[in-house]
Design a protein that fits this description.
The protein is α+β, with helices and mostly antiparallel strands. The protein has one domain (5-67). It has 3 helices and 3 strands; from the N terminus they run E-H-H-E-E-H. A 3-stranded antiparallel sheet has the order 1-3-2. Strand 2 and strand 3 form a beta hairpin. Helix 1 packs across helix 2. It starts with 14 loop residues before the first strand and ends with a helix.
């Protein structure tokens, strides 16, 4: 992943699945979860019993801080 440049593929707001984040960040879905658990990504939110998503504005904010 090259300095999180791939996040420009993501909308500025809304929610994204682990699969969508993995594709945008060019990492595996497992790595998205690891990044979330380590604090490199924000914690996801549960939108339903089987629906977990990341708030994209929080993702962009967190990645911008890490890149600085």
């Amino acid at each position: 992943m090259a300095k999180h440049q791939a996040t420009t593929q993501l909308p500025a707001t809304g929610y994204a699945s682990a699969k969508t984040l993995a594709a945008a960040l060019e990492v595996s879905v497992t790595q998205v979860w690891r990044m979330s658990n380590s604090g490199s990504l924000p914690k996801p939110v549960k939108l339903g019993p089987a629906t977990t998503r990341w708030n994209l504005s929080e993702v962009h904010e967190t990645l911008a801080k890490l890149a600085a």
